[in-house]
Amino acid sequence: MPNLAANLTLLFTEMPFLDRFAAARAAGFDAVECQFPYDHEITEIRRRLDDNGLRLVLINLPAGDWQAGERGLACDPRRHRDFRNSVYRALDYASALGVPQLHCLAGLVPSGMDLRRARETYLFNVEYAANLCGPRDIRLLIEPINTVDMPGYFLSRTEQALDIIAACDSSNVFLQSDIYHMHTMGEDVPAMLRRALPHIGHVQVADAPGRHEPGTGAIDFAGVFALLDELGYQGWIGCEYQPLADTLTGLQWRSGVAAAVEPAVTCLDPAA
């Protein structure tokens, strides 16, 4: 069975955020991730992790004013100072909570901006954040997000992300591969996972269409998990989906995947 982390932003929303840690543990998770923990005190999150024996394996850098439509700051040259402040705030949380990876959202390309300038800004900011994360033993992740759900998002394809990683003057930049976004952008998921594997630091799953749990759409997740094991992927797989009904009912897909992939992977030790 793959090592799965519950995304507490999208799962267990039947209860307040801080109560979701205990719910994730009760549902059998050893690890969790979330998008933005910044509305809650570090000490409160630390207590929930410790009380439930959980690891927090991924958070995002602050994305700006989400309610106003901002989806990250890294590609906007007008927001250098805000971006740097967001890195330091994320590092405060990650260092105190033992988070090993931070996701740097690229953001929407400002209206009328030349794409080359947006790319230069993004590359500069990714390098800046990665070089601050490295000495703290924290990896910086970049994630392509589909432009169907998020029109205008700068980073939308895996090849584009691999190009950014290759261009970075840092060895501390890794790929966050979300199977839902890859599929929605029409990518050949198995072929791209094979190509990108050396750079992948984290995987996330949701089915398409709908962004619900695996088994509700068109993606062959038993095949995806079996391929990740075949390739020797050693990271966590984040359950970042919106349950079709309630969270616990939606989690039943895990037993089906375990039964489908176990015969082929009994000699492998998945990891994250």
TrEMBL record:
<keyword id="KW-0670">Pyruvate</keyword>
<dbReference type="GO" id="GO:0008903">
    <property type="term" value="F:hydroxypyruvate isomerase activity"/>
</dbReference>
<feature type="active site" description="Proton donor/acceptor">
    <location>
        <position position="240"/>
    </location>
</feature>
<dbReference type="GO" id="GO:0046487">
    <property type="term" value="P:glyoxylate metabolic process"/>
</dbReference>
<feature type="active site" description="Proton donor/acceptor">
    <location>
        <position position="143"/>
    </location>
</feature>
<dbReference type="InterPro" id="IPR050417">
    <property type="entry name" value="Sugar_Epim/Isomerase"/>
</dbReference>
<dbReference type="InterPro" id="IPR026040">
    <property type="entry name" value="HyI-like"/>
</dbReference>
<feature type="domain" description="Xylose isomerase-like TIM barrel">
    <location>
        <begin position="21"/>
        <end position="253"/>
    </location>
</feature>
<dbReference type="InterPro" id="IPR053398">
    <property type="entry name" value="HPT_OtnI_isomerases"/>
</dbReference>
<dbReference type="Pfam" id="PF01261">
    <property type="entry name" value="AP_endonuc_2"/>
</dbReference>
<keyword id="KW-0413">Isomerase</keyword>
<dbReference type="InterPro" id="IPR017643">
    <property type="entry name" value="Hydroxypyruvate_isomerase"/>
</dbReference>
<dbReference type="InterPro" id="IPR036237">
    <property type="entry name" value="Xyl_isomerase-like_sf"/>
</dbReference>
<protein>
    <submittedName>
        <fullName>Hydroxypyruvate isomerase</fullName>
        <ecNumber>5.3.1.22</ecNumber>
    </submittedName>
</protein>
<comment type="similarity">
    <text>Belongs to the hyi family.</text>
</comment>
<dbReference type="InterPro" id="IPR013022">
    <property type="entry name" value="Xyl_isomerase-like_TIM-brl"/>
</dbReference>
